[in-house]
Specification:
By secondary structure, the chain is an alpha/beta fold. 48% of the residues lie in helices and 12% in strands. An 8-stranded mixed sheet has the order 12-11-10-13-14-15-16-17, with helices on both faces. A 6-stranded mixed sheet has the order 1-2-3-4-6-9, sandwiched between helices. The protein starts with a strand and ends in a 9-residue tail after the last helix. The model has no long low-confidence stretch (mean pLDDT 95).
């Protein structure tokens, strides 16, 4: 059925029903039709009131983001909102589903707001590097106060109907969006009281000394949590403008700010990230085949990864059987899972009864035969090829025909693991990121003989677990860790040549990462990288530059936070870490061995080198078809490695900088180390054609 707005008149009440599946986005055709029908209802003397609803799963869930960046076409949403608010006839919006962005701005302009109990309401524009652009920052404070308006808008996190009712954002919680709205409207008409326009409400536009202080604290908190981002600051400025500017001037300020932000690289980066996330689900295998049934899951291993995967599955409603090698190990695995849920109870995220229900679907055992009836097994054992192949040989004999065998390996060859079984077509890689119950990225590694329906099942599982899946080909480290190893080497070279790990980390942090590279290594555990380096040592090109600093640190038993020392010292429970003079001494010794005279590195040079190494290896990953498209690399780095979202990911960042400039940097660095800095063939090809990475997204 064609997208449209339907007009139905019932007993002098005009019902405008918006239908633009799947989320009733406020696209140009919808806006035009809505405006026409508002005019019609206004001019029809028989119509006494207007109700706005959404057909299907939701009230309008926001603007059509695909229109952002295109020349604006009338009627724009602010015009519609202003028209609704100015109508003499009462306008009631009756909401359900996810009422976000432009959808909520329409609601704010209505004279009355109703919502079903499960409705979510929010202004998430900040996640796109934007602010609300159709009156959100001006109308919301008038309804709920400046503090709550700032919390809702600067966080971008929706609130539920219960809270919305408490804040007086909505007038009533309803069950039936049409019938209850009609009943409410009849009461309004019977009362014959004049309806209040949001723009005229001013009792919330007063700030006591206490609320002024709380506002300052809230702004400071958001400034810290959204470090480097422009939009949250602009949201605060527009909301505070309600205290000093007349309503129309406030609307003008908001709109200009919105339009200015649309032109920034931050907004373009955030919008790119939004579409990249959606695009990552589009893979060839899913179009060719349906997923296999997945009602039960087995997990081999109860350590950090195994327990995290178990929790993610249980939260998705999938029963899990965990297998470990002995009773002590299974006891630890069970403890890891239960501890996480106890923490959820303590923080009020889950009730006792809910946790009891979840854990009723969780079994632990040392008996592999207990996996005979599960639909999929995820192996999360020690990262060593022999161990994994031994486990897969056992699983091959135990699990039923048609069940899927998967490995959580971070680096190892899935093809080799698959060949340890009699059913390589049923074997796939599912690389979760730690902690697996929290981190959203899931690399789905596709070996050469795997069936299409197995790949489709992996993506289906990701969706059920609310993960962001990325399809990856087989190579050492797949997408994320392969690229990490390259810019990790780059950081090691800079460290050996004169930069301290703390200078490098500071530059990376100020670039927008939540922490520096060496802080991340310490958090993950230095022994993991050390084991991987030792695994790769027999295959290392002797001509390749190798830095021993990290190995020296590990040889001392300094594995990061879990041992109290790594690149940093973690005394007295300090999670941030302090600089360690002994680490600096190790670095000096390694420089002396090679006769390196240290030099200074500016923050600008550190980032130039760091990003050039990241982008160059990412280009190789795309060129070799390990990643389907550049945006999949962006998704990997955004959701798995802390790349600042407002920069869009390394490929988007490269395009923003200009690939020609990236190539010039690579050629400059190539003079000092031709082997490491050789420019990717893909970058050369794109620059010669005048294209960029964005041209390869599909």
């Amino acid at each position: 059925m064609e997208s449209k707005v339907n007009l139905e008149i019932r007993n002098n009440i005009a019902i405008l029903e918006i239908f633009n599946p799947p989320v009733n986005a406020l696209s140009l055709p919808i806006r035009k039709h809505l405006m026409e029908l508002l005019d019609e209802a206004e001019q029809d003397n028989s119509v006494l009131a207007i109700i706005i609803v959404g057909r299907g799963n939701t009230f309008p869930a926001g603007a059509d983001i695909k229109e952002f960046g295109n020349p604006p076409k009338s009627p724009l949403l602010p015009l519609i909102c202003n028209k609704i608010e100015a109508l003499e006839k009462p306008v009631i919006c009756s909401m359900h589903g996810t009422v976000l962005g432009g959808g909520l701005e329409i609601a704010l302009s209505c004279h009355y707001r109703l919502a079903t109990l499960k409705t979510k309401l929010g202004l998430p524009e900040v996640h796109l590097g934007l602010i609300p652009g159709a009156g959100g920052t001006q109308r919301l404070p008038r309804l709920v106060g400046l503090l709550e308006a700032l919390r809702i808008t600067a966080s971008g996190i929706p609130i539920d109907a219960t809270k919305a009712k408490k804040l007086e954002l909505i007038d009533e919680i309803i069950i039936d969006i049409k019938e209850d709205a009609i009943n409410f409207t009849n009461k309004v008409l019977t009362s014959k009281t004049s309806h209040a326009r949001t723009c005229d409400i001013d009792h919330h536009l007063k700030m006591s000394p206490d609320s002024t202080s709380e506002m300052s604290q809230l702004k400071e908190s958001f400034a810290k949590s959204t470090r480097g981002q422009i939009a949250p600051q602009k949201i605060s400025e527009c909301i505070e403008a309600t205290l000093t500017l007349p309503f129309k001037e406030g609307l003008s300020l908001e709109r200009k700010t919105f339009e200015d932000l649309l032109l920034t690289n931050q907004s373009k980066g955030c919008i790119h990230a939004f579409f990249s996330e959606k695009r990552s689900f589009k893979i060839p295998e899913v179009t060719k085949s349906n997923p296999r049934p997945l009602k039960t899951l087995g997990v081999v291993g109860g350590g950090t990864m195994g327990s995290g995967i178990t929790i993610a599955a249980l939260n998705a409603g999938i029963p899990v059987t965990m297998v470990e090698r002995d009773q002590e190990s299974i006891k630890k695995g069970k403890h890891n899972v239960e501890k996480a849920y106890r923490r959820d109870i303590q923080k009020g995220r889950l009730s006792e009864s809910k946790v009891t229900d979840i854990l009723s679907r969780f079994n632990v055992t040392t008996d592999f035969d207990s996996l005979s009836s599960v639909d999929m097994v995820i192996e999360a054992a020690f990262e060593e090829m022999k161990t994994k192949k031994d486990i897969f040989r056992i699983l091959d004999k135990v699990i039923k025909p048609g069940a899927i065998l998967s490995s959580n390996t971070s680096y190892l060859d899935i093809n080799e693991i698959a060949l340890a079984t009699s059913r390589p077509s049923d074997v796939i890689g599912l690389h979760f990121f730690s902690p697996a119950n929290i981190m959203r990225l899931l690399e789905i590694v596709v070996p050469s003989e795997v069936s299409d329906d197995v790949v489709a099942t992996g993506f289906s599982l990701a969706k059920r677990m609310r993960k962001i899946p990325v399809r990856a080909g087989v190579c050492d480290g797949f997408i994320g860790n392969r690229i990490l190893n390259n810019y990790g080497d780059c950081a090691a070279f800079m460290m050996e040549d004169g930069a301290t790990p703390y200078e490098i980390d500071k530059a990376i942090y100020e670039f927008g990462y939540p922490m520096g590279l060496h802080q991340m290594f310490d958090l993950a555990g230095g022994d993991i990288g050390w084991a991987n380096r030792k695994r790769l040592e027999p295959h290392r090109n002797p001509e390749t530059r190798y830095v021993h600093i990290a190995d020296r640190i590990c040889e001392n038993g300094w594995f990061g936070q879990k041992t109290g020392r790594g690149y940093y010292r973690y005394d007295n429970g300090n999670k941030r870490g302090d600089e360690d003079p002994e680490v600096l001494k190790i670095i000096e010794e390694e420089r002396a061995k090679k006769g390196i005279i240290p030099r200074k590195f500016s923050q600008e040079e550190i980032i130039r080198r760091y990003m050039a190494a990241m982008i160059n290896e990412a280009a190789n990953v795309i060129f070799e078809k390990i990643a389907l498209r550049p945006s999949d690399v962006d998704v990997t780095k955004l959701f798995g490695y802390g790349f600042p979202r407002y920069r869009g990911g390394p490929m988007k960042y490269a395009d923003s900088c200009g690939l020609d400039k990236i190539l010039l940097d690579l050629k400059e660095f190539e003079k000092e180390d031709p082997l490491f800095w050789e420019p990717s063939k893909l970058i050369i090809e794109l620059v010669n054609k005048g294209d960029n990475f964005g041209s390869l997204n599909n």
